[in-house]
Structures are given as C-alpha cells and as structure tokens.
Amino acid sequence: MSKRLLKLAGFLVLFVLCAGLGSMTYFHYGNPQSTCASCHEMTGVHAAWSTSAHRNFHCRNCHGGSLTLDVHALRSHLNRVVQHVAGKPAEQIRLGEHDVLTVHAACQSCHAQQFAEWQASRHSTTYARIFLDATHNKAEMLSPDCLRCHGMFFDRHIEDLVTPASTTGPWSLKDPAKAAQPAIPCLACHQIHTPAAAATTRPAAKPAQLYVRRELTHFSTELLPASPIWHGQQAVKVSPDPRQRLCVQCHSPNAFRQLGSSDDRTPAGVHEGLSCSACHNAHSNSAKASCATCHPAMSHCGLDVEKMDTTFNSTASRHNVHTVSCGECHNGKRPPKLGAIHRTNSGWCVETHPTR
To answer: At what angle do helices 97-110 and 71-85 cross, to 10 degrees?
Structure first.
C-alpha cells in the first residue's frame, strides 16, 4: 500500500513539474496576445507595443520571460498573475526600478553603438558619483528634486537613498548595491512602446520620450512647452527643436529663467537660436565635431574657430562657447568681415580679400 502511495505521489509530483515547466515554456515562447496580453489589464500595454518600433520583438527580449533566471522578474510576473486571479489587478502596469534596469541592459543587445556612446558620456553617471559628491553636498542640501533628473525611477524618498540629509556628511548610500547603478538609464529619455509612426514623422528631429517622475509616465518632447529664456530683460531666441526641450528639463535655469543661471546652457551670442543637437551627439553628448559641421575652416576673424579662446578649446577659458559673442574679444563690437562667405559643393568658403 505504501509503495503504491509513493508511486502515486511520485507521478503526481512529476505531473505537476511537467505541467509547470510546460506552462512556463508556453508563456515564455508563446504569442504575447495569447499569454501576456490575455489579461485585460495588459490590453493598453500590448496595444502600444503592437504599433511600436519594437513590435517584431517578443516581450521576453526586453522584460525577461517565465524561464528567466532573474528571481526578481519571476516574482514580479507571478505577483501579477496572482493579482489577476484574485481580482485585484493593478490599475496601471508600471515598471519598477529593477525592471527598468533589466530593460536598460537589454537595450545593449540591439543598440550596441548607441549604448557604447551613452557609456562614454556623462549621462552614464552612477548613484555614487551623483549623491556622494562631497563638494556639491556641502554647498547644497540634497532634496527630493534631485531625483527629478538623477534617479527618475527610484520609487522612494531621498532620505531612503542617502544618509545623512544634511550638508555636513559624511554621506553614504543606504543600499551599497546602488552605488554602481546608472542614475540616468535609457528609459529616462526613451520609451520602449513609442508608436512607430511618431518615430518617422520627423526623421530630422526625432522626438524623445521624457520620463516624468512625479507623473510616473513618459511624455513626448513635442508635448513639452518651449522654455522662455531671458538675458536680463531681453528674450533669447530659443530653438524650436523638440530635443532642445528635453535638454532643458535637466539643464534648466533658475526660477527667473535667466540665461546661464543654475545649469542652463541655452545657446546665445553667436550661437543664439541653435539647438543643443546641432553640436552635441545624441548619446555620447560629444561636441568635438561641432565646429567643423557648420563653420568654414577660418572664421570671420580669419582665425581657426577650434583654436579660439573659448571653452571648446580649453575648459579654463573665460569665454563660454555656449554664450560667446564677438564683443567679448572685440571691445563690444562685431568685427568687420575679412571677405564674403559663400557655400560651395565642398563646404563653406571665405574669400581672402577684404569686404568693401
């Protein structure tokens, strides 16, 4: 009798294991419409994905699947199933910070070049580099608004991230594991389910998707208002490029919108009206090739623009390349042109004879 019971128990365990593994395999490889999207709370997410640029990729490619070795992802997936069966589904499916980092790592597999450029940029900064900066922390107390740009997906308060909340220090991260985590991951400026149509409507100025921490959602930069910038009482011409509106969300001026205040880098002077993207690479933020993109080899002054006394040539320069004007070096006046400038098939050309 005991042997029969043991055999029966063994068969039942084997059946449960096989059924469980079979179900997990089905959900891992199956059509999302028959698996993930079969739950009504996922309908909106699936609809957005089905019209996005990533619609030819399976959910598991970015979010992990039921056969993933990521325990956190498995727990999240299982929790959603339990909530659904219990009739207590989440009102809106949102990614937690761990889920965001999973997607962030997945981006590298397809966007290797862009990921490498991001890694080489200052936007790849970590929680430790931002929140354990003693010089900054002594000058300005850490506040919840720090997370608006550095830690958009951190779902707790600033006191839950750094201790102590003072200007005296020494400071430390409450969770040491966060030290090397990116503070500005890919999803800060990109949304996986962006409609493909939006990505092709303006190929020359492809809009990004800014994640707004307080709203817990992404907004297309085309929906963001152009921020007015003032130089004293005079309005500064701001580029209408929607990508410019993305930059100014973090590189923003003070409450009075004054040019160059706080972390504002709005182009002015000889560069007034230009977009940040006219000089900076989208992912590396490098501006090394910016001068050669627009300028002739020699400037109006007859000097090599890359060797002029600006912060482009040396960070020690007093002349910020973002706001430099002719008058800074020419007694407040625009210098006379050396010659007429015209465009040729090979680029810009400056005539060597004086303009009359």
So the answer is: 120
| Residue 188: C-alpha distances to residues 50, 213, 216, 231 (Å) | 22, 9, 11, 30
Contact 350, 298 (CB under 8 A): yes
In a domain, 150, yes or no: yes
Quick count: other Cβ atoms within 10 Å of Cβ 204?
A: 6
Single-letter amino acid code for the residue at 3: K
Judge whether 42 lies within some domain: no
130 lies in some domain: yes
CA distance 155 to 175: 14
Query: What's the whole-model pTM score?
Result: 0.78
Q: How many CB atoms lie within 10 A of CB 149?
A: 17
The residue out of 136, 168, 188 marking a domain boundary is 188
Which of 188, 223, 254 terminates a domain? The answer is 188
Name the band, by pLDDT with cuts 50, 70 and 90, for residue 6.
confident
Q: pLDDT tens across 142-177, in order?
A: 999 999 999 999 999 999 999 998 999 899 999 999
Structural domain for 329, as ranges: 291-356
Calpha distance 320→273 (Å, rounded): 16
For residue 323, give every residue at least 6 positions away whose Cβ sits within 8 Å of its Cβ, in sequence order, or none.
259, 260, 267, 268, 269, 271
Residue 279 is assigned to a structural domain of this protein: no
Contact assessment for residue 131 and residue 146, using Cβ atoms and an 8 Å cutoff? yes
Residue 337 has pLDDT above 70, yes or no: no
Q: Are residues 229 and 257 in contact, defined by beta-carbon separation less than 8 angstroms?
A: yes
Number of domains in the chain: 2
